[in-house]
Specification:
- The chain is of the alpha/beta class.
- The chain has a single domain, classed as Metallo-dependent phosphatases (Purple Acid Phosphatase, chain A, domain 2, 4-Layer Sandwich).
- About 25% of the residues lie in helices and about 25% in strands.
- The strands form 5 sheets. The protein has a 6-stranded mixed sheet with strand order 4-3-2-1-17-18, covered by helices on one side. A 6-stranded mixed sheet has the order 5-6-11-14-16-15, with no helix packed on it. Strands 7-8 form a two-stranded parallel ribbon.
- Helix 5 runs parallel beside helix 6.
- The longest helix is centred in the N-terminal third of the chain and has 16 residues.
- The chain is globular, with a radius of gyration of 18 Å.
- The two termini are about 20 Å apart.
Length: about 290
C-alpha cells in the first residue's frame, strides 16, 4: 500500500492544491504530520483548516486522510479536523491502515521559543536542566532555545500559560510509555510531528548562519524508537531539514526500524513529501 506523507503545510493554499494533485492521481491515503493551519488566532485557524480541506477533498470520497496537529496549531485545529468527513486524527488510539498495519500519531514537541503552547511539553523529567538561581534562567533559556511563557487555549479562547521547571510530570517521555502500549510496534506506522533528537532535526538558534543551527528533536522520541524498534516512523517539524539533507530523507535508529523525514520546507511554491510503500518500506521523494 502506497501512502503520501506530507507535513508542515501551514495552511498555504498552493500547497493544499498540490496535495490535491496526489489525490487526483490515485493516492488512497494521505498522512499529514502536523502544522496544518496558517499562523493566526484560534478562530482564524479554524476557518483556514476548513478552507484548505475543502480544496483537498472537494468531490472526493475514496481517499483517507490521517492528520495530526503540530506545535504551530492551536487545539481547535485538532477539533476541527475531527469534524471533517474522511479525516482521521489518530492521536487517541491506533487505527487500521490496511489489513496488516495500523497507524497512530503524536503531535507534541519539546518546548520551543514560540508562543503557541498547546502542543509543547517538557521532553522528560530531567532535560534540559534549569538553574535554581533565577538570575541564570534567561541565559539557560537562550542556550536551549526555550520560551517558557506563551498561550494555551480552551476552544477559541486563549489564556496565558507558563511552564514550571520544577513540575515536569507531564512530559513526552511519559507519553511514549503509553504510546508503546497502543499497538504492536512491528505492525505500526507512527506519525510524529517532532523528529527524534539528532536525526534530520535541524532548527535555527539565536543569530544567523549554520553555526547557530540547533537540534529541535526529542530525546524521548529517539528513545522510544530505540526501545521499540517500530516498523516505520514519519516525522515533520524541521523546515531546515529539507534544504540541508541533500536529497536524503530516511534514517534508522538501531535495529531495523525506518524513519522518514517529511516537510514542505521554507519555499511556499514547492510541496515536498515522501511516497511510502508501507509493506516494503520503499520510498520516493515527492516534489511538486
Amino acid at each position: 500500500m502506497w501512502i503520501a506523507a506530507l507535513s508542515d503545510l501551514h495552511g498555504i493554499r498552493t500547497r493544499f492544491e498540490k496535495a490535491r494533485r496526489l489525490v487526483d492521481e490515485g493516492i488512497k491515503a494521505l498522512v499529514l504530520g502536523g502544522d496544518i493551519a496558517q499562523n493566526g488566532p484560534p478562530d482564524f485557524q479554524q476557518v483556514n483548516v476548513r478552507a484548505c480541506f475543502d480544496i483537498l477533498l472537494f468531490g472526493k470520497k475514496d481517499v483517507r486522510i490521517f492528520a495530526i496537529p503540530g506545535n504551530d496549531d492551536w487545539k481547535i485545529v485538532e477539533d476541527t479536523l475531527r469534524e471533517i468527513p474522511g479525516v482521521i486524527v489518530p492521536t487517541d488510539r491506533a487505527y487500521p491502515l490496511d489489513d496488516t498495519f495500523s497507524i497512530t500519531g503524536y503531535p507534541y514537541v519539546p518546548i520551543t521559543p514560540f508562543m503557541f503552547k498547546d502542543f509543547e511539553k517538557w521532553d522528560d523529567d530531567r532535560y534540559p536542566e534549569m538553574p535554581a538561581d533565577p538570575a541564570g534562567l534567561k541565559s539557560a533559556m537562550i542556550a536551549h532555545r526555550l520560551n517558557l511563557e506563551g498561550y494555551r487555549t480552551r476552544g477559541l479562547e486563549r489564556f496565558e500559560f507558563r511552564f514550571d521547571p520544577s513540575d515536569r510530570e507531564d512530559n513526552i517521555s511519559a507519553d511514549m510509555k503509553r504510546l508503546a502500549g497502543l499497538s504492536d510496534p512491528q505492525k505500526t506506522v507512527y506519525l510524529f510531528h517532532c523528529p527524534p533528537f539528532g536525526f534530520f532535526d535541524f532548527g535555527m538558534g539565536i543569530g544567523s548562519g549554520t553555526g547557530s543551527r540547533v537540534h529541535i528533536g526529542s530525546r524521548s522520541i529517539a528513545g522510544f524508537i530505540r526501545d521499540n524498534n517500530p516498523w516505520l516512523t514519519v516525522h515533520g517539524h524541521s523546515h531546515e531539514a529539507v534544504s540541508v539533507m541533500k536529497g536524503e530523507f530516511s534514517f534508522s535508529i538501531g535495529g531495523n526500524s525506518v524513519g522518514v523525514a517529511v516537510g514542505a520546507g521554507n519555499d511556499p511554491a514547492v510541496l515536498n513529501g515522501v511516497a511510502i510503500d508501507v509493506a516494503s518500506r520503499s520510498l520516493r521523494r515527492i516534489a511538486l
